[in-house]
């Protein structure tokens, strides 16, 4: 049989290998889970970017459409209605024509997203319909009927600021850069995207970011085409209304960055001369407006100008304006949390640790039980050796008539009877414990009075005490003796006999050689107490009093006879009847044990 330290070492090595394997598996699983979480985070960010771009383009589209739809003549502070509609009014009599000056809608309408409308003539002069010429303002066209002097002064200040930023040459340079259509994706990219749409599992993991980028490019193409179609419709409408006159017309507004400011600029032909008409947009307000509208999708996003040409950053740029979306970080709580993989890993670790602990406890219990059984075998062997030697020696001497003295022969026979009783008691204890281990009782419990119970076991107890020169003192008060109890007489007899036997062995050298058996009433029923006046039991010994097979061969050789099974058997028998056996005295004046019985 292996030694306990060898078993513990083998278990520790096996546990170390298991934990190392689980640690490696956990590390790989967590790495893959983090990669998957990061992929989810990126996918969520790209999806939110796509939705945010659509939302921003949809929000700014009406503003651009409204500015594109403005006819060329509203870029004058006041205009005569017969000028643009002369052809339409040619059949109307002269006295029916309206010659009154009408204010431009731009003069009287304001928007938080537009700073100023402006126009640059062929001579390069910068004007604004929101800043009427002094003659028109002084003539009463503008003041105070349509617009206040304060508003005109603010517009004039903005116009002065704009003069320092833009000029006809700078705008012509900006308009000279033609929008470049998005290049079509390569055939391989188209095939990859189509394959992922049909079967996402077939797309390689390392190609997912590129595929997502291609999808973003397609989204930009769709939004760009939508804006282009809107501009084309507006252009066709303008051409239908104005180009029919031949001398007038306007192109579609184009957003451009000039001097760090966002402008909408177009060409307008008036009376055969080319003018540049534009809108100075309030980019900070527009930026805040667009970001607030998509804050639920990209709360940490920002919009950055695109100044290196229309082909830059197609995947995340707006189709309506030359700006790109910087998405920022996705909120951690959007994808974080206890994933099923991590939860499964935690459960697996809990199961492994619980299993290892259970195996360790069972192994320790098995080793301890094996050691106790080994000690029991050694103790039994030691206990059997002495009586068997005595039996052999005395029986041989008696059989060969080597003992002639009758008194000596009688002493030898008495010794043989005592050793036989000792062996019988030891065998009875072992057999009774084995029956309890198998869950079988020797007899059924019966109802009888406490006095009757004590009387049925008294003779054997007195015989055991008198055999060692001890005196058994039985005290059964009348009020306690008349109480009925449920008990198995054989079990109670074996319990009390073990207690008296221990008192005879361990208190034999005491000056007071009495053993008290007392019956009394208690809160939970009736009790029988066995007390001696020997050396007592220490606290260290008391902790293992009721542990079976607790006496080793060395202890059996240096202590009173016994194998360390009597008290463990006595407690098991008591609890099997529904009662209990407890040790209730810790001092130097003997030992006291209490048997608790159930009242009937």
For this entry, give a set of tags:
six-stranded antiparallel β-sheet, alpha+beta, about 600 residues, Heat Shock Protein 90, seven-stranded mixed β-sheet, 2 domains, single chain, rod-shaped
Task: Give a description of the structure.
This protein is of the alpha+beta class. Helices cover 51% and strands 15% of the residues. It has helices at 4-68, 105-108, 134-138, 149-163, 168-176, 187-198, 208-241, 283-293, 340-399, 406-437, 450-466, 478-481, 489-506, 539-542, 553-558, 566-576; strands at residues 78-79, 102-103, 114-120, 126-127, 249-250, 254-258, 261-270, 273-281, 302-305, 323-326, 446-449, 471-475, 484-487, 514-522, 525-531, 580-583, 592-599. A hairpin with a 2-residue loop joins strand 6 and strand 7 (261-270). Helix 1 (4-68) packs parallel to helix 7 (208-241). Mean pLDDT is 78; it is low at 92-100, 178-209 and 239-246.
Kindly state the number of beta strands: 17
* Residue windows where pLDDT falls under 50 for at least 5 positions: 92-100, 178-209, 239-246
Count of the separate structural domains: 2
Range of helix content? 40-55%
Oligomer: single chain
Distance between the termini: 50 Å
Estimated structural class? alpha+beta
For the largest beta-sheet, the strand count, sense and barrel status come to:
7 strands, mixed
Q: What is the tally of helical segments?
A: 16
Radius of gyration: 54 Å
What proportion of the residues form beta strands (DSSP E)? Answer: 5-15%
* Molecular shape: rod-shaped
The pLDDT mean sits at 78
